[in-house]
């Protein structure tokens, strides 16, 4: 697919992944606008346009989404853990619902959603909220990319490196190999490359990128039809 200059609207652009991503998008020559709350403006890289609003109320920013052709939704609870189950629905899912409404009204051509790998034996409420977010997007009929990391290694997010030897062992045995690949650790750099590639290469329908694709920086996508994604 041909890479063109994109008009990109980002929610969650002041977070762990968002700040690195917006900087990369600017370096690629794209126009980037970031939804911000008062007091978080300093977290946005110079060169981005600021849009003040509330991610949980699309009415505060819908009018400023256009003329974006790409909407990247990164909003989520920081450092998710099982104790934050209620927040996964009141923040992660609620913000996704608002973002889909805003993107649909602005007639955005591509919605990129930061989801999560699944199934997994833990974080079931988190996985359920993200799966419901994917379903909302699929039902909107907006072409979309679902990016599904399990854990993103980077500054302040490195404790799972202790598990790397266990991942290596799991890949050696047929009974655990698939799970180790499905829940593989990825790096912040790999995520940024993948998100940037996704923005520059919009799909015609629903595209799903799993950790195996993210670890390559982008990769051959697994295509899921809208009907299957919304089932």
SSE layout and pairings?
Layout: E1 7-11, H1 16-27, E2 31-36, E3 49-52, E4 70-73, H2 85-105, E5 110-114, H3 124-140, E6 144-147, E7 151-153, H4 164-170, H5 174-182, E8 185-187, H6 188-200, E9 206-209, H7 211-214, E10 222-224, H8 226-230
Parallel strand pairs: 1-2, 1-4, 2-3, 4-5, 5-6, 6-9, 7-8
Antiparallel strand pairs: 9-10
Helix pairs in contact: 1-6, 2-3
Description:
With 231 residues, the protein is an alpha/beta fold. The chain has a single domain, classed as NAD(P)-binding Rossmann-like Domain (Rossmann fold, 3-Layer(aba) Sandwich), CATH 3.40.50.720. It is 38% helix and 18% strand. It contains eight helices and ten strands. An eight-stranded mixed β-sheet has the order 3-2-1-4-5-6-9-10, with helices on both faces. Strand 1 (7-11), helix 1 and strand 2 form a beta-alpha-beta unit. The longest helix is centred in the middle third of the chain and has 21 residues, at 85-105. The radius of gyration is 17 Å and the shape is globular. It starts with 6 loop residues before the first strand and ends with a helix.
Question: In short, what is this structure?
Answer:
With 231 residues, this protein is α/β, with parallel strands linked by helices. The chain has helices at 16-27, 85-105, 124-140, 164-170, 174-182, 188-200, 211-214, 226-230, and strands spanning 7-11, 31-36, 49-52, 70-73, 110-114, 144-147, 151-153, 185-187, 206-209, 222-224.
């Amino acid at each position: 697919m041909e890479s063109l200059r994109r008009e990109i609207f980002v929610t969650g652009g002041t977070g762990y992944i968002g700040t690195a991503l917006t900087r990369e998008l600017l370096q690629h020559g794209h126009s980037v606008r970031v939804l911000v709350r008062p007091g978080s403006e300093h977290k946005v890289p110079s060169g981005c346009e600021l849009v003040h609003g509330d991610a949980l109320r699309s009415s505060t920013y819908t009018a400023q989404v256009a003329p974006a052709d790409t909407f990247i939704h990164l909003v989520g609870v920081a450092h998710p853990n099982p104790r934050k189950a209620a927040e996964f629905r009141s923040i992660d899912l609620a913000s996704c619902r608002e973002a889909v409404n805003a993107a649909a009204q602005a007639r955005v051509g591509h919605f990129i959603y930061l989801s999560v790998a699944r199934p997994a034996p833990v974080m079931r409420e988190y996985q359920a909220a993200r799966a419901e977010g994917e379903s909302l997007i699929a039902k909107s009929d907006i072409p979309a990319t679902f990016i599904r990391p399990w854990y993103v290694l980077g500054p302040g997010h490195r404790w799972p490196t202790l598990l790397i030897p266990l991942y290596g062992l799991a890949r050696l045995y047929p009974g655990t190999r698939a799970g180790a690949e499905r829940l593989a650790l990825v790096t912040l750099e790999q995520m940024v490359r993948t998100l940037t590639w996704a923005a520059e290469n919009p799909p015609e329908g629903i595209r799903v990128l799993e950790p195996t694709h993210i670890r390559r920086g982008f990769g051959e996508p697994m295509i899921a039809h809208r009907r299957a994604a919304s089932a």
